[in-house]
């Protein structure tokens, strides 16, 4: 069968390949024609008119002879506008898989063919044949794995998108094989020179979680469990000391660096220095997002990528005075976003109503002392962090909405566990109410719209414009000298 998502990928009905695939951009495959409205539509709306809003990825298995395994990838077939363009390859981070790339892949496929592989040993892809347990790879090994998979798919040149450790991987590919890389998108680059030991780096990874969307946590936990703790630890130990700054001055491809405002593993200082070391880089910060900006702000990230690939972020850039290059996202106008019926204002109203319920109803209903105490503590805690949340009904407005939702989700889990364990022997009505409140917290955490953005361009001193002048070229040795200084300090 011919893959209707990625031309040239030949697969059996089971989705498993019998031979190495060949990914060819110029093929005879064309999506079925449909009648489009006569009025002009934006690219995302035109693609939706052709294919509908369902962008479920295809699972494709590719035999990689040099590794002795078949690698799994999630793929999306782009719209007709993407024909002839280099595909976009999404590379995941530490211990993860392509699963958390799905929200971004769906949106990028509105204009490009998109492929998100599970690197060997992660997700559904097994470790390379003959690899010693626990098979935690270093940066060079993962780069070689990515190149081997690209060769097996016949991808000669691609746009590489990396997140976290994935940034280190795609930068290594771009330096050693510049002819294989069209452009680079680098989100949440690691490792920051100040935190290059596992003991310093991993706590920052954990600190990122409250700033991510609650729906990301189960995805990450499932991927971590699949990879296994020993493999993750070995991968962390073998990648955390990578002196990536020594390779950045040798990157020839134009690069877009994206940082989430609340990224704990990527400081603003390191993001700017990282971008400054790139010969042709630009830095964008997405407000409200964290380390996995491509997941929490998928719509904004996709628009950034589209703008970057179309040359709209090339220098010199006539940006607004505040640097905004992509406005704040609005889930109501994102047809690919999951339905989330609760606005931040409605969530605030529900917060205070449930707090009042917890502080008054249990005592009046005689639900038992342990139930009364548990719900009273829940009500007081909800009131306190609601007052500090950055939404319409917050007083201090210091706490990001993502942190609030993660606290809601944590409260929901605690209430469900309490109803099943510590509240045994209390009146049944109280236990049912506690369980119902726990489920409500989980629902509210997952069904609330979280505003993200805008994305702002951050000026970084020493950046060259496209088509360098002699003065700009003189800056290259300066960047290399700065990189060597950073590597030795």
Structural commentary:
This protein has 489 residues and is an alpha/beta fold. It is 41% helix and 11% strand. It is built from 16 helices and ten strands. A ten-stranded mixed beta sheet has the order 1-2-4-3-5-6-7-8-10-9. Strand 5, helix 4 and strand 6 form a beta-alpha-beta unit. Helix 11 runs antiparallel to helix 12 and helix 13 runs antiparallel to helix 14. It is globular, with a radius of gyration of 24 Å. The protein starts with 42 loop residues before the first helix and ends with a helix. Residues 1-54 and 464-474 have low confidence and may be disordered.
User: How many helices in DSSP terms?
Assistant: 16
Task: Work out the strand percent.
Answer: 5-15%
Q: Which percent range fits the helix content?
A: 40-55%
Protein structure class = alpha/beta
Strand order of the largest sheet: 1-2-4-3-5-6-7-8-10-9
Low-confidence stretches: 1-54, 464-474
Q: Mean of the pLDDT scores?
A: 86
DSSP, total strands: 10
Gross geometry: globular
Biggest sheet: strands, sense, closure? Answer: 10 strands, mixed
Report, as a whole number of angstroms, the end-to-end distance: 55 Å
Q: What is the CA-atom radius of gyration, in angstroms?
A: 24 Å
**Element pattern in H and E:** HEEEHEHEHEHHHEHEHHEHHHHEHH
């Amino acid at each position: 069968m011919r893959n209707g998502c990625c031309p040239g990928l030949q697969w059996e009905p089971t989705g498993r390949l019998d031979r190495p695939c060949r990914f060819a951009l110029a093929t005879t495959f064309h999506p079925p024609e449909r009648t489009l409205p006569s009025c002009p539509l934006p690219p995302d709306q035109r693609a939706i008119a052709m294919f509908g809003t369902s962008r479920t990825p295809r699972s494709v298995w590719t035999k990689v002879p040099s590794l002795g395994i078949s690698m799994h990838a999630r793929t999306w077939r782009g719209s007709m506008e993407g024909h002839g363009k280099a595909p976009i390859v999404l590379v995941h981070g530490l211990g993860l898989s392509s699963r958390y790339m799905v929200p971004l892949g769906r949106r990028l496929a509105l204009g490009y063919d998109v492929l998100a592989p599970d690197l060997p040993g992660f997700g559904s892809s097994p470790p390379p044949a003959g690899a010693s347990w626990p098979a935690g790879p270093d940066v060079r090994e993962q780069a070689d794995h990515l190149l081997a998979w690209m060769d097996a798919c016949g991808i000669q040149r691609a746009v590489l998108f990396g997140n976290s450790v994935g940034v280190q991987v795609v930068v290594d590919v771009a330096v050693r094989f510049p002819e294989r890389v069209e452009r680079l998108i680098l989100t949440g680059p690691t490792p920051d020179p100040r935190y290059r030991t596992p003991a310093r780096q991993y706590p920052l990874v954990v600190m990122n979680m409250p700033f991510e969307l609650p729906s990301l946590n189960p995805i990450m936990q499932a991927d971590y469990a699949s990879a296994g703790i020993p493999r993750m630890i070995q991968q962390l130990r073998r990648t955390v000391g990578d002196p990536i700054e020594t390779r950045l001055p040798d990157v020839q491809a134009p690069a877009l660096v994206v940082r989430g405002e609340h990224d704990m593993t990527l400081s603003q200082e390191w993001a700017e220095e990282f971008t400054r070391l790139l010969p042709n880089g630009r830095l964008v910060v997405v407000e409200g997002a964290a380390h996995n900006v491509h997941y929490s702000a998928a719509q904004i990230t996709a628009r950034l990528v589209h703008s970057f690939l179309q040359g709209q972020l090339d220098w010199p850039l006539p940006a607004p005075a505040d640097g905004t290059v992509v406005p704040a996202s609005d889930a109501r106008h994102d047809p690919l976003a999951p339905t989330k019926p609760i606005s931040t204002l409605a969530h605030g109203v529900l917060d205070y109503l449930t707090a009042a319920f917890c502080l008054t109803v249990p005592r009046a209903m005689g639900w038992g002392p342990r139930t009364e105490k548990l719900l009273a503590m829940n009500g007081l805690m909800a009131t306190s962090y609601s007052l500090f949340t950055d939404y319409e009904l917050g007083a201090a407005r210091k706490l990001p909405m993502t942190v609030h939702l993660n606290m809601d989700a944590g409260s929901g889990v605690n209430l469900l566990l309490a109803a099943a364990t510590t509240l045994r022997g209390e009146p049944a009505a109280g236990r049912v109410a506690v369980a119902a409140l726990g489920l409500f917290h989980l629902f509210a955490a997952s069904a609330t719209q979280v505003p993200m953005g805008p994305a702002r361009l951050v000026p970084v001193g020493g950046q060259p414009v496209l088509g360098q002048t002699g003065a700009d070229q003189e800056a290259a040795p300066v960047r290399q000298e700065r990189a060597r200084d950073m590597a030795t300090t």
